[in-house]
């Protein structure tokens, strides 16, 4: 069971990293270093950006739940 949660944690970690990197830079910080700060969004966020935000939040919550479950399982196993 711990092995399954560990594999799921690795998969969700990689997925979360990919989703975060897909977001547009909002200006300032590291996004300016790579040219992301030069763009200005005139019309608010599109449907795709809002969906990407929602998916990122859900994957982040699942990632957090897996970490908590792994911690509980390891504590009970010891």
What does this structure look like?
The chain is elongated. The model has no long low-confidence stretch (mean pLDDT 84). The chain has three helices and no strands. α1 runs antiparallel to α3. By secondary structure, the protein is mostly helical.
Summarize, please.
It is a multi-pass membrane protein. With 78 residues, this protein is mostly helical. The chain contains 3 helices and no strands.
Radius of gyration, taken over Cα atoms and rounded to an integer in Å: 17 Å
Query: Which structural class do you get from the secondary structure elements?
Result: mainly alpha
In DSSP terms, counting alpha (H) and pi (I) runs of 4 or more, how many helices?
A: 3
| Unreliable runs | none
N/C terminus separation? 14 Å
| DSSP helix fraction | over 70%
Strand content: under 5%
> Tell me, what's the shape?
elongated
Helix-strand topology string = HHH
Main beta sheet: strand number and arrangement? none
Mean pLDDT level: 84
Question: How many runs of DSSP E, i.e. beta strands?
Answer: 0
Protein name: Protein-export membrane protein SecG
Subcellular location: Cell membrane; Membrane
Membrane topology: Multi-pass membrane protein
Main location: membrane
């Amino acid at each position: 069971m711990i092995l399954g949660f560990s594999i799921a944690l690795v998969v969700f970690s990689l997925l979360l990293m990919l989703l975060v990197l897909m977001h547009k830079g909002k200006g300032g910080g590291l996004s300016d270093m790579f040219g992301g700060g030069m763009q200005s969004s005139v019309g608010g966020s599109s449907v795709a950006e809002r969906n990407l935000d929602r998916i990122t939040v859900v994957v982040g919550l699942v990632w957090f739940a897996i970490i908590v479950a792994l911690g509980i399982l390891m504590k009970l196993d010891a």
